[in-house]
């Protein structure tokens, strides 16, 4: 059976854990013979995976001395960043593309994919989190510059948070530093715009951050980077190198706010 996840740097024992829920566009052979019925151009788009996110996650993991948990199946097989009862767990149409192999998938097929892919990935992430006394989860994603029929998105990076905004607010403040803003303007050709719960709003009940951090009270943040800015390995490495020290600064500030007398 195809692996549902890959953990890089499992021996790293620091406080950070990095996750990449939508790391690849792999369709395992056990799912419709390894073919969802989409043309190759669709499988290379954001609908199938978060373009560039895995490279950034791996660079962050190395810089933060953190393990990285990454899925090994397309989000169109089953979406690990949704609750098990979420209606978008198994998508039948996404950004104008119908997913033929999902159109008639019934509850038993959904249950099979949960057991084969979704739950093993979450089990690996839970194990990494539980191995630390005070873990901090950083979830790395990417977003497309423009959805079909929608206006262009102006943000280069978005920081998502739900009820627990401690780390995300400190991270947004760190991202606003002039040196980072100047670098982003240089690589993107536009002044830095940070999306606070943009291009999506917060988290969904049962999603990966909710499941592994919010319910346990662990500090967390979710990073969304516009995928045209992380299309190459060099770009992914550069973003990882720039974000890591800002995350460290944000964690220090968030912990100071949490425990001002410690």
Describe this structure in words.
By secondary structure, this protein is an alpha/beta fold. The protein has one domain (5-258): 3-Layer(aba) Sandwich (Aminopeptidase). Helix content is 36%, strand content 15%. It has seven helices and nine strands; from the N terminus they run E-E-H-H-E-E-E-H-E-E-H-H-E-H-E-H. It has helices at 40-43, 53-64, 107-130, 166-175, 178-188, 208-214, 233-258, and strands at residues 5-8, 16-20, 68-71, 93-94, 97-98, 136-143, 157-160, 194-196, 220-226. Strands 1-3-2-6-9-7-8 form a seven-stranded mixed β-sheet, sandwiched between helices. Strands 4-5 form a two-stranded antiparallel sheet. Strand 4 (93-94) and strand 5 (97-98) form a beta hairpin.
What is the topological layout?
Layout: E1 5-8, E2 16-20, H1 40-43, H2 53-64, E3 68-71, E4 93-94, E5 97-98, H3 107-130, E6 136-143, E7 157-160, H4 166-175, H5 178-188, E8 194-196, H6 208-214, E9 220-226, H7 233-258
Parallel strand pairs: 2-3, 2-6, 6-9, 7-8
Antiparallel strand pairs: 1-3, 4-5, 7-9
Helix pairs in contact: 2-7, 4-7
């Amino acid at each position: 059976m195809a692996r549902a996840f890959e953990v890089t740097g499992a021996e790293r024992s620091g406080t950070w854990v990095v996750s990449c829920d939508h790391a690849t566009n792999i369709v395992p052979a056990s799912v419709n013979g390894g073919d969802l019925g989409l043309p190759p151009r669709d499988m290379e788009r954001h609908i199938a995976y978060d373009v560039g996110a895995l490279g950034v996650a791996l660079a962050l993991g190395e810089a933060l001395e953190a393990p990285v948990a990454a899925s090994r199946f397309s989000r169109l097989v089953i979406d690990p960043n949704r609750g098990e009862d979420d209606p978008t767990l198994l998508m039948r149409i996404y950004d104008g593309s119908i997913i033929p192999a999902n159109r008639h998938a019934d509850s038993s097929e959904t249950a099979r994919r949960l057991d084969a892919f979704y739950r093993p990935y979450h089990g690996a992430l839970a194990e990494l989190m539980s191995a630390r006394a005070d873990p901090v989860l950083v979830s790395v994603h990417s977003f497309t510059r423009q959805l079909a029929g929608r206006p262009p998105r102006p943000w280069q990076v978005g920081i998502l948070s739900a009820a627990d905004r401690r780390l995300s607010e400190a991270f947004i403040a760190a991202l606003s530093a002039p040196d980072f803003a100047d670098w982003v303007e240089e690589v993107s050709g536009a002044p830095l715009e940070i999306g606070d719960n943009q291009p999506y709003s917060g988290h969904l009940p049962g999603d990966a951050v909710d499941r592994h951090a919010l319910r346990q009270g662990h500090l967390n943040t979710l990073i969304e980077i516009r995928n045209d800015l992380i299309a190459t390995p060099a770009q992914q490495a550069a973003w990882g190198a720039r974000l890591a020290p800002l995350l460290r600064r944000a964690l220090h500030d968030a912990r100071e706010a949490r425990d001002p007398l410690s």
